[in-house]
Amino acid sequence: MQAKHLRVVILNQGPLILVKNNTPFGGCYYNILLESSKLYNFTYDLVRPKYKGMVKLPNGTWTGYGGQVFRGEQNLILGNTRTFARNAHFDFPSGLDVSGVKFITALPRKTLDWAAVLYIFQPLTWLCLGLCSFGIFALTYASNYFLSYSNVTTITAKI
């Protein structure tokens, strides 16, 4: 884009494009355009007309700023104009795609809340599991205790 000149339409869009005295001075979209022009060495003219809509007509042409881009009257639209109907005909990069902003977060810590182990089952289920476990333990202990004496044989030796 060396030494090219772009014609840009700006739609009033809150914090994305800030306007004072009818002149854009900041905002995400404006800052991206400004910094890109410095980096890629191009100039631009900003036009801020009143928004009149952007609709595809049955004959395939577009009204409003979309039509101006298709006809080559404008090169770029800065503003939120993305809809499903327009996705097939226009390229809509988000502000984060072109700004280089990256979100970095730390990896989650691997911790275990031991109380969460109790939430696996309802209290009645835990009671049933506890009673069954106690019953199995009691039967195993009792069977070992009583069966160990039933197999004892007495041998008497005569001298």
**CATH fold-level assignment of the largest domain:** D-Maltodextrin-Binding Protein, domain 2
Radius of gyration: 38 Å
What is the total domain count? 2
**Which strand order does the major sheet show?**
4-1-5
Transmembrane segments: 116-142
Subcellular location: Cell membrane
Main location: membrane
Membrane topology: Multi-pass membrane protein
SSE inventory with pairings:
Layout: E1 5-10, E2 18-20, E3 23-26, H1 28-40, E4 43-47, H2 64-71, E5 76-78, H3 84-87, H4 95-99, H5 114-118, H6 123-150
Parallel strand pairs: 1-4, 1-5
Antiparallel strand pairs: 2-3
Q: What's the gist of this structure?
A:
By secondary structure, the chain is of the alpha/beta class. The protein has helices spanning 28-40, 64-71, 84-87, 95-99, 114-118, 123-150, and strands spanning 5-10, 18-20, 23-26, 43-47, 76-78. It folds into two domains: 5-99, 3-Layer(aba) Sandwich (D-Maltodextrin-Binding Protein, domain 2); 114-150.
Q: What does this molecule look like?
A:
The protein has 159 residues and is an alpha/beta fold. It folds into two domains: 5-99, Periplasmic binding protein-like II (D-Maltodextrin-Binding Protein, domain 2, 3-Layer(aba) Sandwich), CATH 3.40.190; 114-150. The protein has six helices and five strands. The chain has helices spanning 28-40, 64-71, 84-87, 95-99, 114-118, 123-150; strands spanning 5-10, 18-20, 23-26, 43-47, 76-78. The strands form two sheets. A three-stranded parallel sheet has the order 4-1-5, sandwiched between helices. Strands 2-3 form a two-stranded antiparallel sheet. A hairpin with a 2-residue loop joins strand 2 (18-20) and strand 3. The longest helix is centred in the last third of the chain and has 28 residues, at 123-150. The termini are far apart. The mean pLDDT is 76.
